[in-house]
Amino acid sequence: MKKIIWLEYWRIEEQEALLEDMARQGWQLTGVNYRSFIFEKSSPADTRYRIGYIKKDEKFDERMAEYEQEGWEYIPSKGNLRIFRAMEDNEQDKERKYQAVEWKLLRKDLLIQEVPLLLLTFLSVALLVYRVFQWPAEAFLTDAVLAALLINLLLAGTLLSRLIGAYSYVSSIIKRLESGNSPREGQDYNKTFSRNRVISIGGALIVFPILVIVFGNLAVSYITSPPGVPEGAELPVLQLADIIEEDLVPYINEGEEESFYRERWGIMVPEQYSLRESVSDPNHDWEPGNSGNSYLWSYRYTGRTEWLSGRLAQSMAAEYSRHSPFENYESVESSDFDDLWVSENNFMTAVIARAGEEVFYVQYTGDGQVGILADSIAKKLQE
Known about the structure:
With 383 residues, the protein is of the alpha+beta class. It has helices spanning 12-24, 60-69, 99-134, 136-141, 143-178, 190-223, 306-323, 370-382; strands at 2-4, 27-32, 36-41, 47-53, 73-75, 81-87, 260-264, 271-280, 293-302, 330-331, 339-344, 349-355, 358-364.
């Protein structure tokens, strides 16, 4: 029979109590896997167990021989925790003071193993927080960023709590051993056993759905979005047909393989639409080297609340002005929108407009003016 070890490896007293309790129920330990004890059925017996922390170094054989001489039978174990068994009538080794040296080594190794991992986790949290502040719009739109931050915060808290608990626990054992007192026998392991099981299962139930939602959303958005743009469809985003001259409409996306339309959803921004289109004017006298195409990138976001949409629009204007060489937004007054930011240069005209929970973000490399884009967005809102 295998029994999962819902105990931290440094909880020596509870593990000894668990093994002795299983022996009284008629289950004797025969081995240890990564996270489970292996038992075989036997007659109920008062069997004593002893767990030592013995590394495979130059003193390994000497320490193992000492346990054997004192009447302890070694049970093949994993890692540096060595499990020994003796029958209850074995009266040897009532003094365990020498084990303080082993637990000091365990405490040292705990710090060596856990502190770097904890520091890396805090570094990961710091980098994610920095990313959120540098690219706040991405955090609103991409659940993966906030999901990673949440998971790392949970992990950092868990590791910190684990390190403090482990250090305190092992130090208390060392103190008792050095004072000549044996560790507490018959320790009640059930409370810790149940708590760790609930925390582990609960953590998995929290993290797994987050990962499914985030990566499932990304996968579904690409799988369910067909290539190209639906021909003749009225989309919720601003389209080229809304802003260009009517005689150019037949040339929209003509021979353009990179045009697309996608729909996504998120936790804070449940509705997200994105469109890329191009148009070529066959009668325009293009300069040599110019592809002859004008491009439109059009986005529409519906925030879960008006406040979230306001924060999203502000973040987009600040983030894109900071990071894009072609965008430098200025806020302008508008009777059609709650917020309006515009950017205009020789390469591109761009508009970020918010009305209530709706946020439009449009980039256009053609001859369209800011006013045309803003008026077209206002009409799209009224549809």
